[in-house]
Structure formats: structure tokens, C-alpha cells
Amino acid sequence: MSKLTLISLVLLCLGLALWAGYAAQGSYVDEDGILQEPFHLLALGWLFVLAVGVTLAGALVVRIIKKWRTPK
Description:
- This protein is mainly α.
- Helix content is 75%, strand content 6%.
- It contains 2 helices and 2 strands; from the N terminus they run αββα.
- The protein has helices spanning 3-25, 39-69, and strands spanning 28-29, 35-36.
- Strands 1-2 form a two-stranded antiparallel sheet.
- The longest helix has 31 residues, at 39-69.
- The model has no long low-confidence stretch (mean pLDDT 91).
């Protein structure tokens, strides 16, 4: 397993943990009629999951370049 693949796995776990935290904490309407929710957890979860896609794409590009440069 390459380092980039391991990094993407860690980022995916962090993203899923943030989404789980968002779901566990829930949202509610307070006494003044204002919606209270931990929206930052949802946004950060998407950020980490998108970072997984970028990291895996980078790992794929590195693998293709290494295979292309290897003499036959």
C-alpha cells in the first residue's frame, strides 16, 4: 500500500467520522424559532471526502508515470 493510498484512507475515515458526528448531534429549533445545527461538520466531511478523490487521482497519476518510465 502506497503512502498516498494510506493518506486517502485516513482522510476518508475522518470525513465519515465528521458525517457521523453531524448525524449524532442532530439539529433542532430553539425557543426563538432559529434552526440550530452543526453545519460545519457536514461541510468539513465533504471537504475531506473530496480530498480523498484528489489524493487517489494523484496516486493513480504517480503509478501511471512510474509504469511509463520503467524500461521494458
